[in-house]
Amino acid sequence: MTETVSSPRENGNDIHTKDHVTMPNGDVKLDEMNEKNKQQYNQKKSKTLNRESSYGEIHEQGPEAFFEADNNANENPAPIPHLQQVPRGDSYDESQEKLDHGYVGKSWRADSRPGYSNKIYTSVMLEDSEHEGRPSVYLFIFVNPLSGDQKGQELTRMAIQSFRLKQAPEVQVQIYNILDDKDRELGFEMLKLVEGMAERDELMPVPENSKIGTTARRRQIHVWSAGGDGTVMSVFEELVSHKVNLDIVYFSCIPFGTGNDFSQVLGWGRTIPNKDILGTYLNHLVDLSLQRLQGEAARLDIWELEISTHDTGYARKAGKKHRDDNSKIVTRKMCNYMSIGVQGYVGSGFENQRTGTREFNVLVYAYESAKWMRRGFPPVTKMIEGMTQGGKKVLRCRNPNKKGVHKAAVEDEPEQEDENVPVMTKHPIDFVIQNIPHIWGREVDLWGNAVSGLEVVDNRTGPTDPSLWSPQRANDGKMEVLVLNSMYSYLKKLANFQDHVSRVGQFASPFQIDFREPDLTYKSKWWRRKKDKTDYKDPSVICIMCDGEFYEVKHPKSIKFRRFAQITTLGNAEGNSRLVRDEKEAKENNTGEEVDRAQQDVNDYVQPSEERVERQPELNGPDPSQTNEEVDNTPAKPVAKEGPL
C-alpha cells in the first residue's frame, strides 16, 4: 500500500513535505518518487535564496519568495524571520489589506525583499519623505533670566521649549534656562546627542534653497548665550565641562546685560532692538535669529586665568552672597578683558546694590563712580610687583613711597633694579588686560587710538618694545596691556575720550602678573569686621573686573593667563562687527599665516602628557631656565584646532 502525504504550510512557517511509502513490513523509506517530487517542487518555485547574509539575498524576483532553499543538503527550508512579524516601530492594523509574501493588496512591492523594512504602506511615513522631516541646523539658546532688566524671563517662561522657524523650517530652536540645573543639563544632553549625530554624519543636509546664510550652513550646531558678558563665559564653561567639540559649533549671543562688550564687538548691539524679545507671534525672536543666521564667521581666543592668593588671603566674587567664600585659587575663562583697579573697585560696590532693571543699574554704577572719585583710587603698583613671561621677568613696577593709601607718590623707595628689565615709571590706578578691541560697554579702540604714553615704561624690550607690536587681533594668542595713569585719565574715560591711556605691551600666552608680599600689619576697623564689610582701605585688598564679573582678592599672589581655546563666532555681516572686519582684513593681508603660527605655539604649549595632572610649584620670581610649560601650573586642556570658518 502506497500513501503520499504532502502538507506544506504557506503562512511563512516551516514547509514540511512528507512523502513516504508504507511497506508491508512497516518500514518507511525514501524511494525514487520521493526524489522526483522534490525536483518538481523546486522547479515550481521561481525564487532562489542564498545564505550570504543572515536572512539571505534574493537573486530572482517572485511573489513566492518567502523561504530559503538549501541546495546543499536534504533538509527543510529555513524560514525568513523578518517576514513573520511586523518590525518594532511599525503599526499593524488587521483591517488593512494583508501584506502577504511581498504583495500589498494585489500589487507587488519589490522593496518587500529582505534588507528592506517591512512597513505597512497605507499612510505617509516620516522616514519616506525626502528629508525625513528632520531639521538640518540645531540652534541651542541658553538664557540667563536675571541678566540686565530680566528680559530673558520671557524666553524661560515660554510654554514651549523647541520650535521650527517657518521661514527656515530646517532650523530647530531649543531654549534652556542656564540657571536651572535640570533644564540646563537637559539642554546639554540634547546638544551632546546632536553632536554625536554630526560626527557620524547623520544630520540632514541643509537644503540648497535655505534662507540662512552660506556661512551659517557650514556648521549645523549653533550655541547662543542670552544674557550679559558673564553669561557668555558661563555657557562656554558648560561647553568645556561637557566636552563639546568646538570645531563643529558656531557661537553667538543675544544681549540682555548691562555692558555687553561681547555682543557689541560681534556687531549685534548693546541690547536687543525691541523692548521685548518675543514680539507678536514670536516675530521679534524669529527676526533676531534669522539675522544672526546670516552672519559671518570670526575666530575668537578664549583665555584661562588663575587668581591665587597667599595662605592669609582669599579670592571670591563680589556681593553679599559670596561673603563666606574663602578660596585660595579661582580659575575661570575670559574672552573680553580684565581690569585691576578702577573698574574692580567701582564694580564691587555696584554688585552690592545691583537692581532688577538696566536703567537703575546704570544709575547705581554712576553713583559708585562718583563715590570713588571723591575717595580717590589707590595706585595698583602698591600691590603689583611686575610681570613674568616664560619664566622670565619682563616688567617691574616700582613701589610708591607710602605717604597715603590713595595718593600715588612721586618718589619711589630705593630698590635693587635689573638694568635689562623694563620698569614702570608711573603709578597707574588701573591695569587693563585686553583681548577684544572693545571695552567699558562702548566701541572703544584703546590700543589703536592711544597716541601717547610710551614714557610709562622705561628701557622697553621684549613684549614692551613697540617695534615688536602687531595690530590688535582677538585671535592672535596675545593680549594687550594698558594703564590709566590718574584720576584725570578716568574722567576722560567716562567722557569717552580714547587717547588717554598708556600702552604697556603685547604679551603672548602664557604670562602672569606677580604681586608683592602682603602687608600683615594693617588692622580693619572694628565696625567693618562686625558688619563683615570689605575694607577697601586695606592695602592688601584689590578688586578685579573680568568679563562683567567682579572679584575681591586679599593678599593676592599671582594671576596667570594662558590661551585655552579658540571658538568661531557669528558676527554681523553688514560691517558692524569689529571681529568680522579684522578676520577679513587678515585674509586680505595674508596675515593668516601669523595667526596660524601663534595658534601652533599655543598648541605646542598646551599639549602635556596625560600623566601631568599635579600642579607645579608657584612662580615667585624670575627663572630664566624655566620653560613655558613649567610656567603654567594647571593641567592644560586642548585648544580647538584650526579649520574652515
UniProtKB/TrEMBL annotation:
Residue stretches making up the DAGKc domain: 134-309
Polar residues bias locations: 1-10
One GO cellular component, as annotated: membrane
InterPro entries: ATP-NAD_kinase_N (IPR017438), DGK (IPR037607), Diacylglycerol_kin_accessory (IPR000756), Diacylglycerol_kinase_cat_dom (IPR001206), NAD/diacylglycerol_kinase_sf (IPR016064)
A biological process from GO: phospholipase C-activating G protein-coupled receptor signaling pathway
Top-rank EC class of the record's enzyme: transferase
Swiss-Prot/TrEMBL keywords: ATP-binding, Kinase, Nucleotide-binding, Transferase
Domain of life: Eukaryota
Region (Disordered): 1-58, 72-95, 576-645
Keyword Nucleotide-binding attached: yes
Biased composition (Basic and acidic residues): 11-21, 28-38, 579-599
GO terms, molecular function: ATP binding; ATP-dependent diacylglycerol kinase activity
Pfam families: DAGK_acc (PF00609), DAGK_cat (PF00781)
EC number: 2.7.1.107
Family: Belongs to the eukaryotic diacylglycerol kinase family.
Name of the protein described by the UniProt record: diacylglycerol kinase (ATP)
Organism field: Umbelopsis ramanniana AG
